[in-house]
Design brief:
Blueprint (H helix, E strand, L loop, with lengths): L7 E3 L4 H9 L4 E3 L4 E2 L3 E2 L11 H22 L7 E10 L2 E3 L5 H11 L3 E12 L2 E13 L4 H8 L21 E5 L2 H5 L3 H10 L6
Helix pairs in contact: 3-4
């Protein structure tokens, strides 16, 4: 497929993903998916029983893209590549999602304190009958956090819309001793890997 223009659809509500695409000059139109349980969700982010983190993050990213692609057809919108992604944090085989309360956020950060965890971001690009997908895994080591640091951070708004209860682009940068992997991937969209997918769909990135 050679797109008629260089614009894509972004099937994500994440402001970090929007910022990263703009940073590298990718033109996109937002195609938001419902994620409020009170109003219903378009794609469930519930973890299946015994589902490993890698399988989970890849499945959710694919399902978001497939749903958005169907929406384009139902709404008779111009067909362009659909970019979707999902990010999760895992430690000791446990998936850490978005905390629903301060106590849950505190517990997550306590589990990450002084240890290395993994951040997985899977990116899927859906176009015609093709879905291309790349998953990037980064190792992140936190310094030892005091209870006061954790409580002060959880008193801000930062932890509550982010997997693992922290955002590397915000105050939590103070917690991180070492990264091995992709800074942008930890934010939610690995730029290098995303560019590879876009080039396969005929989108010139530079």
């Amino acid at each position: 497929m050679r797109p008629l223009d260089k614009k894509i659809y972004l099937a994500s509500k994440s402001p970090r993903r929007r910022e990263l695409l703009r940073q590298v000059g990718i033109d996109f139109e937002l195609l938001s998916l419902r994620s409020d349980p009170g109003r219903g969700v378009d794609v469930s982010e519930d973890v299946h029983t015994s589902e490993p983190a890698l399988a989970y993050v890849e499945r959710v990213a694919r399902e978001k893209g497939a749903f958005a692609w169907n929406v384009l057809h139902l709404r008779r919108m111009p067909l362009r590549p659909v970019l979707s992604a999902d990010t999760t944090v895992t430690i000791d085989g446990e998936i850490l999602g978005k905390p629903e309360s301060p106590n849950e956020a505190i517990a997550m950060l306590e589990s990450l304190s002084g240890r290395t965890h993994q951040v997985l971001t899977s990116v899927a690009l859906h176009y015609t009958d093709v879905t291309e997908q790349i998953t990037q895994v980064s190792d992140v080591r936190f310094a030892k956090l005091t209870p006061e640091m954790i409580k002060a951070y959880c008193a801000t708004s930062e932890p509550y819309d982010k997997a693992g209860a922290y955002g590397i682009q915000g105050l939590a940068a103070l917690f991180i001793e070492h990264i091995e992997g992709s800074h942008s991937g930890i934010m939610g969209l690995p730029v290098f890997e995303t560019a590879q997918l876009l080039q396969k769909a005929g989108i010139k990135v530079l």
